[in-house]
User: Fold these one by one.
Assistant:
Number 1:
Amino acid sequence: MGQFSQDDLNLAQKYPEFGLSVLSLKKDYNNATTAEQRLLANQAANELRKSYGNYSGGADGGSFRLESKLNRRSDDLLDQLGSFGSFSYGEAPTYEIIAQDGPPHNRTFEAAVSRFGVELAHGTGRTKKQAEQAAALAALQKLKSGDKQK
């Protein structure tokens, strides 16, 4: 976990707070005196990577892999919402981030999805995209069940 991967560097350029947080965790890892301390620092770094870039450094911090299962499922859900019943024509659903909470390295977002100015559902996630995807899923579930309430 000593060196920055190209993925970490790219993400740090886009989100400086990510870079500072990972740098701090890398220092913790390098200064750790026990295997448990190194494991905790590595796990925290991987959580950051997952929340910002949807990838992981693996158990040793050096074998980077994309966590794409959720993305494919979420993209499918967004496609379903965009084409569900009355959504197959006219205005597409819109998403708005309505709240965010927590420090930059551990932020939670809340999104709302609307159609024709009517709010359909809310969702939360560790990234803006995950919050929008959760809102899309909640709206899709309400539409499929016939629930007209928020």
Number 2:
Amino acid sequence: MKRLWCWSLVGLVSLVGHAHAQAQVFKKDSTFMAWQEGPTNITLRNNQLYWTNQGLIANRFRDGSLVTVPLTGKKVQVLADKLNFPGPFVFDATHIYWTNMGYKSDASIWRLPITGGKSQLIVRGLPDVEYLAVGPRHVYFARKVRHKGFTAIARVAKTGGASKFVGTVNKLIGAMVLHRGALYVVGYWGKASALIRVDPPSGKTAVLARGVNWRQLAADDTGLYFVQGKNLMRIAPGKQQPKRFVRNRRFRAGFSLKLSTDAIYWISASGTIRIDRKKRRQRWIYRGRCVDAVATPTALYCARTYKEMIQVVK
């Protein structure tokens, strides 16, 4: 059965006077782009949207693709096609790196020049790879270790070669970012989910917080952000311990966190909440399901399940 996914373009901010700037909810739909096959991992870079299409179940997800389109939505460019269940991707200054998670086996990692060109295989023959992070010289990834019951963190040179073990966490991982030289992962430590810091040179691990919510992890120059129960937490630069940034009872059921210069976006099946970084005010900006989304100063691009791509306006 063919899977139809969609995105939404949602207006975000309307200034009402100088003292009462608030994000507004936008409701009216119009078609933006249609017939994508499972779009996810939406990323915004230099006014270009990037995403992966995971492909069709009927084809065992072997018809996935990595695509990009300008914010005008006028010209879609397929950067790589015939991918085997593509997963998350990351950027450095010159390349895009992504995973082919495979259909039950044979996962691999690839890269491609941002300007387009020929794809380069970095490593293959892995049992399962889903999460990536990129550093100055290496690509870091999480892989399951068969018959051992734990997940290994490994690295491989950007140009390819043999992978090297870095550290381990128990069972699955829900997210991974490289932040200020250390890897931060959401996984299981014992029987509970946790935020775990992994030091790549030494392989040492440290549990920073327990009861951390699945997949909700993001970082930029202002710190590392994650959700713990009803709390959005932050580890500020130069600090080791997390502190509460804001609280909301709905945070328990989110899909992801996305960061912009002036706001943090919490994305869920119920909708998207915008959190002002400076004043820490929270407001619904969209009341509709988003599997994944990114924001600009004037819009929210949202992937919704089994729909065409739509544009939501005021």
